[in-house]
């Protein structure tokens, strides 16, 4: 068992990493001042695997509860599906102290978090993340959002959960492709803040791919700590938090340009990190050796480093709408050396163009 606190004054919360805790959520909620009526939002796959455990545990804790299922996949991160959550919440009569629980990966977490942030102008939100990506990244830090056809996460809010309850054992059922999506974000944390962890990943490729429970639990707590530290210093992404977007500028453009269906988020980020590293090399911010180390680690995990199914022009159109733009200039997160990045808004357009040509 491990515990990480995210210190944000009145919005502080605990991340609990406890094997078997998927069936303990009711007990955890009983520590909190909620009305005993809860809505669980999940997707069809996760609901079939873990919905009953969560519902039984809520019933055991005296909760009236209902569950709603969304289709698995990025297409559920939409205003339309969010409206369905509001409809369910209103029909159930959820009040301002009724918790809404996200049971699933980052899609369910981002979608449900935004619904919780806006229903009745905010109700308690609980994260029960079930993918590696959600356990190491998306359930922590309070970014919630839905997509728009013109861009990723374009509509959303900063809204912190009241609790993040992580059960590493649920990763036993996670398909390898989804495990690797989480590893992409873990590699990102290594690149931006923790060279030691980056090296640890190199040394543990086989054990991670074999889903060694001890290694994964260690990876989860280490990464929650890294993310919590960044969020505590810059919750609203004025500066430091932008570094968590390393690889996302091009990654989000690839996801959107391929209709949010060809690449999952982690794969987009893997290709995007390759692109960001190449830009850093072309503008003279880092050594070729560091770009090669990153490429090597991504490839050892079988993550993609080049994109198919989109053109340079399409990617440039999506890049122009990047959320880190300021006065028309994109704030790029560039690699200095493994463990260190910097924010730069003066990357010339021709360097971006050259990089995009190199990665597709
Ligand atoms: N808010 C943030 O800070 C943040 C950070 C990173 C990513 N994200 C967002 O997260 C999303 C990606 O999340 P994701 O990678 O978790 O994808 P996901 O939520 O789509 O889940 C991936 C797949 O795994 C299945 N699944 C989930 N848990 C399972 C389990 N235990 N066993 C078997 N199958 C399981 C799901 O049904 C789904 O098909 C993207 O929309 C991305 O933008 C948000
Ligand atoms: O928490 C953050 O801050 C991040 O940037 C984490 C990212 O991994 C995540 O994909 C996030 O949703 C991206 O947010 P966006 O603001 O770039 O859409
Ligand atoms: Zn991400």
TrEMBL record:
Belongs to the sugar phosphate cyclases superfamily. Dehydroquinate synthase family. Pathway: Metabolic intermediate biosynthesis; chorismate biosynthesis; chorismate from D-erythrose 4-phosphate and phosphoenolpyruvate: step 2/7. Pfam families: DHQ_synthase, DHQS_C. It catalyses: 7-phospho-2-dehydro-3-deoxy-D-arabino-heptonate = 3-dehydroquinate + phosphate. It comes from the Bacteria. Zn(2+) binds at residues 185, 248, 265. This is 3-dehydroquinate synthase.
């Amino acid at each position: 068992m491990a515990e990480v606190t995210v210190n944000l004054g009145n919005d502080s919360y605990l991340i609990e990493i406890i094997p078997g805790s998927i069936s303990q959520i009711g007990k955890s909620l009983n520590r909190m001042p909620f009305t005993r009526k809860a809505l669980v939002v999940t997707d069809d796959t996760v609901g079939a695997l873990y919905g009953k455990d969560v519902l039984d545990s809520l019933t055991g804790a005296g909760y009236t509860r209902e569950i709603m299922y969304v289709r698995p996949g990025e297409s559920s991160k939409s205003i339309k599906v969010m409206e369905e959550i509001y409809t369910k919440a209103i029909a159930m009569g959820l009040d301002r102290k009724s918790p809404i629980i996200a049971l699933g990966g980052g899609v369910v977490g981002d979608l449900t978090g935004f619904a919780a942030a806006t229903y009745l102008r905010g109700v308690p939100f609980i994260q029960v993340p079930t993918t590696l990506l959600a356990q190491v990244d998306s359930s922590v830090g309070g970014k919630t959002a839905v997509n728009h056809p013109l861009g990723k996460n374009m509509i959303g809010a900063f809204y912190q959960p009241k609790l993040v309850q992580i059960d590493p054992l649920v990763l036993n059922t996670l398909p390898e492709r989804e495990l690797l999506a989480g590893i992409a974000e873990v590699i990102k944390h290594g690149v931006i803040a923790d060279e030691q962890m980056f090296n640890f990943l190199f040394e543990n490729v086989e054990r991670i791919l074999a889903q060694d429970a001890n290694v994964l639990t260690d990876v989860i707590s280490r990464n929650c700590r890294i993310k919590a530290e960044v969020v505590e210093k810059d919750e609203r992404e004025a500066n430091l938090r932008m570094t968590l977007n390393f690889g996302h500028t091009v990654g989000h453009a690839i996801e959107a340009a391929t209709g949010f269906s060809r690449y999952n988020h982690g794969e987009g980020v893997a290709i995007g990190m390759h692109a960001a590293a190449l830009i850093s090399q072309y503008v003279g911010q880092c050594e070729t050796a560091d770009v090669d180390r990153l490429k090597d680690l991504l490839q050892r995990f079988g993550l993609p480093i080049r994109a198919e199914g989109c053109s340079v022009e399409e990617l440039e159109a999506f890049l122009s709408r990047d959320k880190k733009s300021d006065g028309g200039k994109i704030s790029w997160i560039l690699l200095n050396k493994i463990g260190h990045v910097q924010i730069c808004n003066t990357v010339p357009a021709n360097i971006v163009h050259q990089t995009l040509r190199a990665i597709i």
